[in-house]
Design a protein that fits this description.
heterodimer, A: about 325 residues, alpha/beta, Rossmann fold, Alpha-Beta Plaits, 2 domains, six-stranded mixed β-sheet, four-stranded antiparallel β-sheet, 10 helices, 13 strands, B: about 450 residues, mainly alpha, 3 domains, three-stranded antiparallel β-sheet, two-stranded antiparallel sheet, about 60% helix, about 5% strand
Chain lengths: ~325, ~450
Amino acid sequence: MIPDMTQTGKPEKEAPSSSNSAPVVMFDRVSKSYGRITALTSVSLGISGGVTGILGMNGAGKSTFFKLMMGKIRPSSGTIRLFGEDPWKNTAPYSRIGFVPEHEKLHDWMTAFDFVTTFARLHGLTRSEAEKEATRVLKFVSLDDVMHKQIGQFSKGMRQRVKIAHALVNDPELIVLDEPLQGCDPLARTTIMNVIKELGAMGRTVLVSSHILGEIERITEQIVILHRGRILALGNSHAIREMLDQHPHKIVLQCQNPREIAKHIIDVGQVTGMAFVDSDKLILETNNLGDVHAKLPKLIVDSGFTVTGIDNPDDDLQSILKYLTGGSI
Amino acid sequence: MDTVWSKLDRKSTAIAEFTMRQYRQRISTWVILASATFTIMLMLLFYVDAMNSEFESIDNDGDSFDDDGDGYPNGQEILEGTNPHSADSFPDWVEPDPPEKWINEDDFDWDSLEIGENSVGFDDDGDCKIKDTPSQRDSNSNNVECDIRINLDPANSTFLVEGDIGVDEDPDEDKYGKEASHRAFILGIGKFGIVYLLGIFLPLFLATGLIRDEITDGTIHYILAKPISRGEVLLYRMIGYIGITWPFIIGLCLFLSIITGIFGPGEDAFRWSDIGIWMSIAFAAMLVSLVYGVIFCGFGILWKNGVILALIFATWELGMAFVSIFSGGESAVRYFSVIGWGLTVVDAGTLIFWPDNFLLIEKGLWGGGHAFEVNSFFDMEVGYEPLPGAEPLQGFSSNPGLGLSNWLSMLTSSMVLIFQGIIAWYIGQTIFKGKEVD
């Protein structure tokens, strides 16, 4: 798949524009190698506005992509521009960026308020300005009631929110979050997802990485799939999903009378095969997942039998990658 | 109004403040500072003990003895003109002196020395003046009877002492020994204990990991994602480092100056003259710890086991410290080090605040020209035996060796240290800027 250099997201509000018309983030044939190991191979893309999800399995090159973007490491070849500047040579663009690193380690001895205030001052804010901004962002991530407690006492989700708060303190135009949901409990995930969606709604350019498709889909429609250091797919998640829907999928129905239900479903044209596993599972095969899912609820109701669960085992990132790479992941 | 400078100032105070807080909350910082204090205190115990013990008084010229057993000490008989070797000859017109009056009775009278030839000294006990012939009374042949000839040549760092026999030959060992030991202690503990050991020990433990630990922990990402260059980060972290180490050095030296000021010898309740020396020591240690700090921090950035490089460097510096301290300022090799310049600051300070230090050393080394006489083939030479404390004081005292005035020597060596610090920072930030932070 050829990356679309003009690809942009769909901000609900006009994003603050960079000093020129260039994308906020621009990678042009960027490669990065560590000795013989290639972490990123000829990646080209431009991102401006909206929330973009960077999807990839562990080791796909997501963190390398972010580190290159944030000037932490130098590309082996190619050009990177952040607000039109080379991030390896110039730290000026960082005043317009908020970065949430993947690293878990924080300064546990500090309070959340101290932590956010201290790093806010590195943007050139006075102490009182920094304190005011820290209070604002900690409230935004719903940590205002515990902001004077030491970070060491915080749960994983709260620590992630502290990291997000510290990245928002300069009111950035671009927010980069490297695996912000990793290790969080469901409640924390929901909270963080809401924060990210809200940031997107506020017109910020947000880049968020994950290795879980469902998480990214709940946040944004705009995704980039990285695999083995290359961009495998890029664009709207619906388009990718539609494309995926064309390849054989399995649907697993959890029910007490699989054979009876099968009689009702067999007439659906898009179902290409059926299998019975154990005594309570019916597996359907289809080349048009969307169509079958559209018809399935009515058929089940009409059958009069109870279905306790519907699962799509092929609907995860691994299956998508398998499909996109022709089975070699 | 916000300017580039005010923003820079905010960033620098934020990082420096953060660094100091980070140090304060680490137990290791307190352990290091406590260990350093404990070691210095241990050395201080030896000093207090030395100041409270007495140096044995020696009758260098033997005139407290009563050779003829007539009850009058030899010295009294010589002064009164009777024969100390005849029991029938004694000064019956005066009461016999107690023997101890003739111990340490001819102390140094060496004031107002000038560059070039000097004639000083006074024959307090009259055992020179009473000699029979002018040549006996002028054994140093400078045409002045019963004096000490001193040739002072600072250009060549030479100090020649030739005394007529019987002049200033019985100095006060305890008075001299305490003064010399006091000064030797201050210079010894100051130069080796504080400028070298503390100067290298503190940065080894406190500066090597200043950036390295942040990289290892991954917390460096929070700083590096801000609009601040890596060179600035290094600089401001160093400010935080000196915010902890410098007050400690100043505090320790101030404490030591109070202790030595109280326990040191002298008629006054407090030796104010030592404050200047201690401040020179503190100043040198501050500069040295800064330069070492920047170098070691750079080693930490270069390699995660940078402490190994720091230890190799510290070994070189130890060698240079020995060369500096024990060459008496003669060896120029010491200028290829940090410690060499640091100790030059102290050497210059010593000459500024104790201008009589070299005179005191020479006095002690000359020791009164007592004890024994060596008969050479052609004439008689006087063998010298140093007074207690003279040799240690000589060991720890050096000439700045720059051929400049004392203040200029101090200024020059301080500037060199600052320059070394700037060069080390430049190299360190270049390494840091080129380092990929994973």
